[in-house]
Amino acid sequence: MKINTTLRKPQFRRFVMLASALAGLALASARAQVTVEVIHYFNVEGQLAALSEMQKEFEAANPDVKMKFTFVPFGELVSRTLQMAAVRKPPAISAVDNPDVLRVAKAGILKDISADVAKLKVWEDIYAGPKAAVSEGNKVFGMPIGSNSLALYYNKKMLTDGGVASPPKTWAELNETVKKTTKSPVYGISFSAVNDEQATWQWEPFLWSNGGSLLDLGSEKATEALQLWVDWVKNGYASKDVVNWSQGDVPNQFLGGRAATMVMGPWQLGNVEKSGVDFGIVTIPVPKEGEKPVVPLGGEVWCVLKGDPKVEEAAMKFVAFTQEPERLRKICDTFNYISSIKSVAKQQGEAKPAIQPFVDQMETARARSQDGGAKYPDISLATRTAIQKALTGQASAADALKEAAAKIKEIMAKK
Amino acid sequence: MSAATKITTRKLVLEASPYLFILPFVIFCLILLLYPVVYSLALSFREATVETFVSGEMPFNGLTQYRTALADPIFWRALTNTLLFAFFSILFQFTIGFLLALLFQANFPWKNFCLAALLIPWVSPILTAANIFKGLFNEVGPINRIAEAIGLGPFPWLADPSYALPATIVANIWIGFPFNFILLYAGMRSIPEDVYEAAKIDGATFWQRVGFITLPMLKPVTVAVLMLGTIYTVKVFDIVWIMTGGGPANGTHLLSTYAYQVGFSVLNFGQAAAIATLLVVLVLLLNLVQFLLQRGR
Amino acid sequence: MNVIPGRWWLTALVVIITAVLLSPFYWVLIGSFMTPAELFGVNQTFWPRHFIVENWSKALERLWPHVRNSLIVSAASSIGTLLITAPAAYGLVWKKPIGRTALSSFMLVTQMLPGIVFVIPLFIVFSKINLVNTLFGLILADMTFTVPFALIMLSAYMKELPYELVEAALVDGAGPFRAFLSVVLPITLPGLVTVGIFSFLMPWGDLLFALSLITESSLQPLTLELYKAFGQYGIDWGFLLPGSVLTAVPALIFVILASRFIVAGVTRGAVK
Fold it and tell me: How many CA atoms, within 13 angstroms, populate the side-chain half-sphere of residue C17?
């Protein structure tokens, strides 16, 4: 029959071989490399080492994906993300600081990953605070990498020398402590009130623990919280220079023996341990006995950007990869985070008792963007202007806050 | 080709020669520099915030952002600060630079080395220089320690706007004097020796020589240095941003730092562009004033 | 160089002035050997108590790969700028072609633009023409600043030129280009070298353009690497201080070598 003879002809066989070879090539190029670019601002050696380890492990498990980590200076990350999106060459992932997530989401460039995170085991176990930072209604715009917050570090020797029996738990005790430990050249307390987000961030524990809110700065509670700071500076328990100290300067004071206590996060624990200072950490003192401290949430978020669906998929795979519990634990330890996942955080606290205060605070920690959503950065700006005005004596705490409150009302009124 | 055509072609080439070198680059500059200028100008008339920037929409809103800027008390504070900053910086930078340039006209051992050494403030990365002064003006930094030692009590340098601005001016003077020094020095070097010799023979004193020979012959260079100095000083950003961040309480903002804060902390690119444009207008006005003063002489 | 005996008093005076003017830098030097705690601590001394040399070795290790990038960008900018602007400045001043005021004004205006105006548009333009993350792109961007500067300054130096010398050379039969090379260049050498030095130093210290255009770590110039000392946790003084000195050193060496050309003066007699 004609068909049989055709099938046996050598030319036909060659044709089949060629066709299958071409098909194979086509298939191979369809599985070609996808590059996932992650922009971030991590620059501490340990963090960078952790990132490259993540890269190696992930690429080994996913040979068709190539990871690229690009460093962008801290202050430039958000604007760089926006610019890259504007020229239609967005990165796959941007490690955004959590208070900025909702603002970046407003630009419409972040992928809603609510469906994907629902598939992650750890999502059910996440603390309320970090969850709120990345959610808007039913949408989820990122997966927290880890969290941190603020607590009170204290110099044991200076406290005992000052006649303070135990570390302060309430505002009254804190004021006592600060007063008794101030002995030139030592200040009772050091914190950061510099003219950027850090001032608001450092003040929020006091504002929120007192029941205040950034959206209602005219209230008594807000004034009380700011007056606390103002009194410290006025009475010389805190240096006037706090308005110029960033969170990098504050540890220098504490470790250099110029401050008895400092408001600081877990990322400095390593340095403090190395320094040889006999220290302790307690949760942020609360206004009245028995109340719970409410601290702001720090920490970065993996935000997947809208773009090529293949890249989005690979990016989401990477995010899921980092959330596998053991790996997550390792990442949080290297990055000085308290994990946003309850079970992992608990493990961290057990392994290292010094950070237990931070873990405890995670229960009541609050996402900054809960006060104003995408408008948080503007609100923060108005707030810190008030803080600085009050601290430098240019206005009373009440007046400065009233001014800020009016400005914030304006901001919230805009669409 | 006839001899006449040869000469005309030659003349044409000669006439065109300055342009031959620079025209290609001018075209490139036009594209590369005009685009940001036009872009920035366009941005200042549009609402360009996080929401609208990426999508490219950026609705046109006319002069709103200019009106907002001019009604903003911080804007006026920044403007005053900028003028004060520029005036005192240039005054001292130029004077110190000029005196040093004069001093270095003589020959002496180690001259080369000292010349280069005096460039260090300008050569050091600005980040460093700004942080040096941030550290020096620290509450417990060296400057206060010296002040205390001579009985002048510690000053709240960076914690108080009225002290912080002078502190930034001092830092800027330190960074900028070498620029004036070297450029003026090179200018003085090109004045031929015999002119001075002749004057010396005529009995002119050192300062008379400076007044009647150096200054007039140096005029083009002086004008250029002052003009550029003004422009650069008004643009200064890093020094103030690092030393005070514009604070405390927005008290030490220059127009440049305020524009940056509005643009990159608040992410209102349109408003920032408006402030930046007003800054350029200010510079243009200052230069116009300088130009007219110089013409008048 | 002539060393005139008896001028040591002048040297002494200059050394004292230099020391006073450079005193802030002393803080950098001693600080680079200290830990941050000691730097800001209670018992500050004018001499470090322990010498932490690791600060320096670590800084050197981090910065060394980037020296090459900074050198390439600065040298290319400087040479390119001089090649383009020197003849142009000469021509503009002495040939007075039409449109020169427009050109000079344009150059001046470009100098007035504050950096913030460039950040976003530069990124957008260079992204579109694919010059982001290339040293060539960075050189071009830097030159958009150094060329106008050079044109303004060189025009000023050229105006100082005693034109009779050029005319004399032309009368002697030299072509205009020859006159340029043999008369104009030597006399304006101090100005040329100075402008060349600044055209080298400006890209060397530039942060803005590098920040906007280069994200590839291997292509980053020194300033960008140094900028990493400003982390989210505060300033890494242990890197910033020695890093600053190291960043300044190559530039200083260049200046010292080049300065002998500025120091040399010219007398009319010598030219004759």
Answer: 17
Instruction: Give CB contacts under 8 A, 24+ apart, made by B19-22.
Output: B19/C88, B19/C91, B19/C97, B21/C83, B21/C84, B21/C85, B21/C87, B21/C88, B21/C91, B22/C84, B22/C85, B22/C88, B22/C103, B22/C151
- pLDDT of residue B295 exceeding 50, the answer is yes
pLDDT at C3 over 50: no
ipTM value:
0.77
DSSP state of B158: G
Mutation test of the interface with chain C: which of A87, A241, A258, choosing the one with the most C Cβ atoms within 10 A? Answer: A87
Give the residue-averaged pLDDT of B172-194.
Answer: 88
Least CA distance to C122: which residue of chain A?
A83
Provide the pLDDT for residue C53.
Answer: 81
Residues 89-128 of B with CB under 8 A from C: 100, 103-104, 106-128
Q: pLDDT per residue over B18-64, tens digit each?
A: 566 667 667 777 777 778 888 888 888 888 887 788 777 788 888 88
Which residues in chain C are closer than 8 Å to B228, comparing Cβ atoms? 111, 149, 152-153
Give the nearest chain C residue to A70 (CA atoms).
C215
CA B165 to chain centre: 17
Q: Which chains touch B (3 or more CB pairs under 8 A)?
A: A, C
Q: How many of the other CB atoms lie within 10 Å of CB of A166?
A: 10
Query: How many residues in chain B?
Result: 297
Instruction: Out of A94-103, A343-352, B273-282, C178-187, pick the least confident.
Output: C178-187
Instruction: Name the pTM for this structure.
Output: 0.83
